[in-house]
Design brief:
Layout: E1 7-9, E2 12-14, E3 20-21, E4 24-25, E5 30-31, E6 36-37, H1 41-58, H2 63-79, H3 81-92, H4 96-116, E7 126-128, E8 142-148, E9 152-155, H5 169-177, E10 181-184, H6 190-206, E11 214-217, H7 223-230, E12 236-240, H8 243-254, E13 262-265, E14 272-274, H9 276-295, E15 307-311, H10 316-327, E16 333-334, H11 338-352, E17 358-361, E18 371-372, E19 375-380, H12 381-386, E20 398-404, H13 407-416, E21 420-426, H14 432-442, E22 446-451, E23 490-496
Parallel strand pairs: 9-10, 9-12, 10-11, 12-13, 14-15, 14-21, 15-20, 19-20, 21-22
Antiparallel strand pairs: 1-2, 3-6, 4-5, 7-8, 8-23, 16-18, 17-19
Helix pairs in contact: 2-4, 2-5, 2-6, 3-4, 3-6, 4-5, 9-10, 13-14
The structure holds NADP nicotinamide-adenine-dinucleotide phosphate.
NADP nicotinamide-adenine-dinucleotide phosphate (NAP) is lined by residues 155, 157-160, 164, 184, 186-187, 219-222, 225-226, 240-242, 245, 248-249, 265-267, 302, 393, 395, 421, 466, 480.
């Protein structure tokens, strides 16, 4: 399947601009062949006005029809076959099984939302019947439902070319509730994005959805994204990416004349607290699973465990030695892009070379091209408290072990953390008397608390919270994964004393 390098402005391929760029194959460290064309100002404007015009029709289309549309997108994605997998791997350096797994997850997400909107219960309708005889005042008839906000801009992340990108959770949830979507395609995987966009457009045509409910715009810089979020016709933004990018756009959007919701899911260090009883009773398992979680996907996960708290006792040093041994079994892994690799090396080495910081890595593996090795830094609680660099995400297979002398030190370390997507407690019975004080702090800090588990791997279900207090996300009340994520794109509306003929059918 040939890539065109063009943008989708509604259902039409368009490449009017003069700025070109290519994606990179990080394994071979060469450019991929397609020249992508950055969207021009006029193309951005056209995508926005098509989205705005199509909104009025799209939001009124019955849920059952939008549901068929979402399912058809999944079918069309499957029809892309091996071409999609090949381009995904070429643009990300991620292995084929990961591409296949992420494709399934993406289609499952679409299907989950498709099933959700088959009836109108997702709108959380409430009816308060009138009571004309109520004293001192009669009670009005009030009926509440939810309506879609309007056109949404979606920024996908580099590390999930499918599940958090073009047809990922943000797009699926927004399209499900009746919002048109304009995707600012991620410049590291524009080819994957073009193919997925083609699948979405095919589904639009097959299910007779309005032209304009989906556009996909290329860009290699910030301009296109910034123009999109500042346009008055855009009514909400979904962003998955770095803290730097998310906060910048959030600040920008806050200055709009008409404020709009901006949902950014950003990085996180996902602390893991390993209590002495766990080390005593299942050290081998812990070491194996911990290293697997840190190095999974070259550590390029927002839920990657970046900080490990321990409480010193006679087993701690032995546990850390075992981690050092296990790291030697991990082969070098390819990062998504040369920039990611150099950021990883700079940040991890800057920490490791800091005074008093110990480190574990396989010195024998020489990182080549965009390949890196797994590294662990070891610090005291005091250093952790004093050096803010140790508390920030290093994107890649890296984690910091913080050695605390006792529970009180551990609690002060937890108190110093900023908002997180997840935190994990590992404990056996002997330490269960410590758990409540830990949970008490973590509840204020995170969106998901795990027990004797690992945070990588985010289940897509109704009970999932993927978000957390700032800076993990810009609005801790919402999740960007799972069915609840649809709530980001809707608002409540109440009908008071309305004649039945003018009420939506599900409020009658
Ligand atoms: P990124 O560099 O922030 O890029 C994300 C998108 O935002 C790109 O399309 C980028 O466009 C755009 N962007 C960034 N800064 C911008 C600005 N100032 N103005 C306009 N657009 C801007 O993030 P990434 O490297 O793709 O993703 C990796 C990060 O995402 C990691 O920190 C990871 O932890 C986080 N992440 C979080 C979650 C979550 O759910 N919380 C999930 C996955 C990943 P350009 O590249 O064209 O500039």
């Amino acid at each position: 399947m040939e890539l065109t390098g063009k943008n989708y402005i509604g259902n039409t391929l368009s490449g009017k601009g003069g700025i070109f760029f290519k994606t990179i194959n990080p394994i071979k460290n060469i450019e991929n062949k397609t020249k992508f064309i950055e969207a021009t100002e006029d193309e951005v404007k056209l995508a926005i006005s098509l989205a705005s015009e199509s909104f009025n029709n799209y939001k009124e289309i019955p849920g059952i029809e939008r549901s068929l549309f979402l399912k058809t997108i999944g079918d069309e994605i499957m029809k892309l076959g091996d071409d999609l997998i090949k381009i995904y791997c070429q643009e990300s350096g991620l292995p084929e099984p990961r591409a296949i797994g992420e494709r399934s997850r993406t289609i499952n997400q679409l299907n989950l939302f498709a099933n959700l909107i088959e009836n109108e219960k997702w709108r959380e309708n409430f009816i308060d019947i009138a009571d004309p005889n109520r004293k001192p005042l009669p009670k009005p008839d009030l009926r509440k439902t939810s309506v879609a906000l309007g056109p949404v801009v979606v920024f996908g992340a580099s590390n999930f070319p499918l599940a958090f990108s073009t047809a990922g959770g943000d797009t699926a949830s927004a399209l499900a509730c009746g919002c048109p979507v304009i995707v600012k395609s991620h410049p590291m995987h524009c080819g994957t994005s073009e193919l997925i966009s083609k699948a979405i457009i095919n589904a639009i045509i097959k299910t007779k959805m309005p032209n304009g409910i989906f556009s996909n715009l290329n860009s290699k810089g910030f301009e296109v994204g910034q123009k999109l979020v500042m346009d008055s016709k855009i009514k909400a933004v979904g962003f998955t990416g770095s803290f730097k990018g998310g906060k910048f756009l959030f600040d920008m959007v806050s200055k709009r004349k008409e404020p709009i919701p901006f949902f950014a899911e950003m990085g996180s260090v996902n602390p893991i607290i390993i209590l002495p009883s766990s080390i005593k009773e299942k050290s081998e398992d812990l070491v194996k699973n911990l290293i697997a979680s840190i190095s999974l996907g070259a550590g390029q996960f927002c839920t990657n465990p970046g900080i490990i708290f321990t409480i010193d006792d006679e087993n701690t040093n032995n546990f850390i030695t075992k981690i050092g041994d296990k790291i030697k079994d991990i082969q070098n892994q390819c990062m998504l892009h040369p920039n990611m690799k150099s950021n990883y090396e700079n940040r991890s080495e800057s920490i490791i070379k800091t005074k008093n910081v110990g480190s574990l890595k396989n010195e024998k593996l020489i990182p080549e091209n965009n390949f890196v090795n797994t590294k662990i830094a070891i610090v005291s609680l005091n250093d952790f408290l004093e050096n803010s660099e140790l508390r920030e995400e290093v994107f890649g297979p890296f984690s910091v072990i913080v050695k605390c002398k006792n529970l009180s030190e551990l609690l002060s370390g937890l108190n110093k953390l900023s908002g997180q997507l997840t935190a994990t407690i590992h404990s056996e019975k002997e330490d269960h008397n410590k758990i409540n004080s830990i949970i008490n702090i973590l509840k204020n800090k995170v969106g998901r608390i795990l027990f004797n588990d690992f945070p990588t791997g985010v289940e897509v279900s109704r009970s999932m919270t993927h978000g957390g207090p700032f800076p993990a996300s810009t609005d801790s009340r919402y999740s960007s994964v799972g069915l609840e994520s649809i709530k980001r794109w809707i608002r409540p509306i109440s009908y008071q004393n309305f004649p039945e003929e003018f009420l939506p059918s599900f409020l009658k």
